[in-house]
Amino acid sequence: MAITVDSVGSADGDGTTVTLSHTITAVGSDLMLTVGSAAEVNVNQDVTITGVTWNGTSLIAIGNADFDNTSSATFRDTATLWYLINPDTGTHDVVATCATDPKGMTVGAISLIGAKQQAPEASATNKDALVVSGRASVTLSSISDNAWFVDQ
Protein backbone atom coordinates (compact mmCIF):
# COMPACT_ATOMS: atom_id res chain seq x y z
CA MET A 1 0.00 0.00 0.00
CA ALA A 2 1.38 3.41 -0.94
CA ILE A 3 1.55 6.20 1.60
CA THR A 4 -1.09 8.88 1.03
CA VAL A 5 -2.18 12.00 2.89
CA ASP A 6 -5.49 11.69 4.71
CA SER A 7 -5.89 15.26 6.00
CA VAL A 8 -3.90 18.36 6.93
CA GLY A 9 -4.59 21.18 9.38
CA SER A 10 -2.91 23.95 11.36
CA ALA A 11 -3.59 26.45 14.15
CA ASP A 12 -1.67 29.12 16.01
CA GLY A 13 -1.95 31.13 19.19
CA ASP A 14 -0.03 33.09 21.78
CA GLY A 15 -0.64 31.17 25.03
CA THR A 16 1.10 28.19 26.58
CA THR A 17 -1.25 25.80 24.74
CA VAL A 18 -2.54 25.72 21.18
CA THR A 19 -5.47 23.50 20.20
CA LEU A 20 -6.14 22.27 16.67
CA SER A 21 -9.35 20.42 15.79
CA HIS A 22 -8.24 17.78 13.26
CA THR A 23 -10.16 15.05 11.47
CA ILE A 24 -8.72 11.67 10.54
CA THR A 25 -11.18 10.42 7.96
CA ALA A 26 -9.45 7.17 7.02
CA VAL A 27 -10.70 3.87 8.36
CA GLY A 28 -8.45 0.87 8.54
CA SER A 29 -4.88 0.09 9.40
CA ASP A 30 -1.50 1.68 8.79
CA LEU A 31 -2.54 5.13 10.02
CA MET A 32 -0.05 7.64 11.44
CA LEU A 33 -0.49 11.15 12.78
CA THR A 34 2.46 13.53 12.52
CA VAL A 35 2.45 16.90 14.24
CA GLY A 36 4.88 19.78 13.94
CA SER A 37 4.99 22.40 16.67
CA ALA A 38 6.97 25.62 16.83
CA ALA A 39 7.24 28.40 19.41
CA GLU A 40 9.08 31.71 19.72
CA VAL A 41 10.20 33.48 22.90
CA ASN A 42 12.50 36.37 23.79
CA VAL A 43 16.16 35.47 23.35
CA ASN A 44 16.86 35.43 27.11
CA GLN A 45 14.20 32.75 27.77
CA ASP A 46 14.34 28.99 27.34
CA VAL A 47 11.70 27.57 25.04
CA THR A 48 10.53 23.96 25.18
CA ILE A 49 7.41 22.38 23.77
CA THR A 50 6.74 19.86 26.51
CA GLY A 51 4.10 17.72 24.89
CA VAL A 52 1.49 17.13 22.22
CA THR A 53 -1.67 15.05 22.64
CA TRP A 54 -4.28 13.66 20.25
CA ASN A 55 -7.66 12.91 21.81
CA GLY A 56 -5.84 12.82 25.18
CA THR A 57 -3.12 10.38 24.02
CA SER A 58 0.48 11.63 24.17
CA LEU A 59 2.44 11.70 20.94
CA ILE A 60 6.11 10.69 20.82
CA ALA A 61 8.71 13.35 20.03
CA ILE A 62 10.83 12.59 16.97
CA GLY A 63 13.25 15.44 17.55
CA ASN A 64 13.57 19.18 17.85
CA ALA A 65 15.62 22.04 16.51
CA ASP A 66 16.40 25.28 18.33
CA PHE A 67 17.36 28.51 16.61
CA ASP A 68 18.73 31.76 18.03
CA ASN A 69 18.73 34.88 15.90
CA THR A 70 22.16 36.26 16.72
CA SER A 71 22.03 39.24 14.39
CA SER A 72 19.18 40.99 16.20
CA ALA A 73 19.38 39.04 19.49
CA THR A 74 15.63 39.38 19.93
CA PHE A 75 14.14 35.91 19.68
CA ARG A 76 14.69 32.18 20.16
CA ASP A 77 12.66 29.59 18.25
CA THR A 78 12.12 25.89 18.72
CA ALA A 79 10.48 23.37 16.39
CA THR A 80 9.56 19.80 17.32
CA LEU A 81 8.14 16.91 15.28
CA TRP A 82 5.85 14.35 16.94
CA TYR A 83 4.10 11.16 15.82
CA LEU A 84 1.42 8.68 16.88
CA ILE A 85 0.99 5.24 15.34
CA ASN A 86 -2.58 4.04 14.76
CA PRO A 87 -4.37 7.16 16.09
CA ASP A 88 -8.07 7.21 16.89
CA THR A 89 -10.12 8.18 13.84
CA GLY A 90 -12.69 10.95 13.79
CA THR A 91 -12.49 14.61 14.79
CA HIS A 92 -10.42 15.23 17.90
CA ASP A 93 -8.11 17.89 19.33
CA VAL A 94 -4.37 18.12 18.87
CA VAL A 95 -3.08 20.06 21.89
CA ALA A 96 0.50 21.36 22.08
CA THR A 97 1.90 22.70 25.35
CA CYS A 98 4.88 25.04 25.82
CA ALA A 99 6.79 25.31 29.13
CA THR A 100 7.02 29.10 28.89
CA ASP A 101 4.51 31.66 27.65
CA PRO A 102 5.70 32.18 24.06
CA LYS A 103 5.29 35.20 21.81
CA GLY A 104 3.56 32.77 19.47
CA MET A 105 3.10 29.05 18.85
CA THR A 106 2.01 27.12 15.76
CA VAL A 107 0.82 23.52 15.37
CA GLY A 108 0.39 21.59 12.12
CA ALA A 109 -1.01 18.06 11.76
CA ILE A 110 -0.81 15.60 8.87
CA SER A 111 -2.56 12.24 9.04
CA LEU A 112 -1.19 9.54 6.76
CA ILE A 113 -2.62 6.30 5.36
CA GLY A 114 -0.39 3.33 4.50
CA ALA A 115 2.42 4.33 6.88
CA LYS A 116 4.69 1.66 8.32
CA GLN A 117 3.64 1.06 11.92
CA GLN A 118 6.97 1.79 13.56
CA ALA A 119 8.99 4.72 14.82
CA PRO A 120 10.41 7.01 12.12
CA GLU A 121 13.85 5.97 10.95
CA ALA A 122 15.37 9.23 9.73
CA SER A 123 17.40 11.48 11.97
CA ALA A 124 18.54 15.08 11.79
CA THR A 125 22.28 15.69 11.78
CA ASN A 126 22.40 19.44 12.46
CA LYS A 127 19.38 20.20 14.61
CA ASP A 128 20.67 23.19 16.57
CA ALA A 129 21.66 26.42 14.89
CA LEU A 130 22.55 30.02 15.51
CA VAL A 131 20.85 31.95 12.75
CA VAL A 132 22.76 35.07 11.75
CA SER A 133 20.71 35.76 8.64
CA GLY A 134 18.47 33.81 6.33
CA ARG A 135 16.88 30.55 7.38
CA ALA A 136 18.11 27.61 9.40
CA SER A 137 18.31 24.23 7.68
CA VAL A 138 18.29 20.62 8.78
CA THR A 139 19.88 17.71 6.90
CA LEU A 140 17.97 14.40 6.86
CA SER A 141 18.85 11.00 5.48
CA SER A 142 16.61 8.00 4.85
CA ILE A 143 17.43 4.35 5.47
CA SER A 144 14.64 2.70 3.43
CA ASP A 145 13.47 3.05 -0.16
CA ASN A 146 10.07 4.69 -0.76
CA ALA A 147 10.26 6.61 2.54
CA TRP A 148 8.56 9.97 3.08
CA PHE A 149 9.95 12.96 4.90
CA VAL A 150 7.40 15.02 6.80
CA ASP A 151 8.47 18.57 7.54
CA GLN A 152 6.07 20.90 9.24
Report what the structure shows:
It is a single chain. The mean pLDDT is 81. It is built from no helices and twelve strands. It has 152 residues and is an all-beta fold. It has strands spanning 4-13, 17-24, 31-42, 49-54, 57-58, 60-69, 75-85, 90-98, 104-113, 123-124, 128-131, 140-141. The chain is 0% helix and 57% strand. The chain has one domain (4-114): Jelly Rolls (Sandwich).
Radius of gyration over all CA atoms, rounded: 16 Å
The total of beta strands comes to 12
If helices are DSSP runs of H or I spanning 4 or more residues, what is the number of helices?
0
Distance between the termini: 24 Å
CATH classification class: Mainly Beta
Count of spatially separate domains: 1
What would you call the structural class? Answer: mainly beta
Q: Please tell me what the overall shape is.
A: globular
How do the SSEs run, as a string of H and E?
EEEEEEEEEEEE
What does the average pLDDT come to?
A: 81
Biggest sheet: strands, sense, closure?
6 strands, mixed
Identify the CATH architecture. Sandwich
What fraction strand? over 45%
Residue windows where pLDDT falls under 50 for at least 5 positions: none
Blueprint (SSEs and pairs):
Layout: E1 4-13, E2 17-24, E3 31-42, E4 49-54, E5 57-58, E6 60-69, E7 75-85, E8 90-98, E9 104-113, E10 123-124, E11 128-131, E12 140-141
Parallel strand pairs: 6-11
Antiparallel strand pairs: 1-9, 2-8, 3-7, 3-9, 4-5, 4-8, 6-7, 10-12
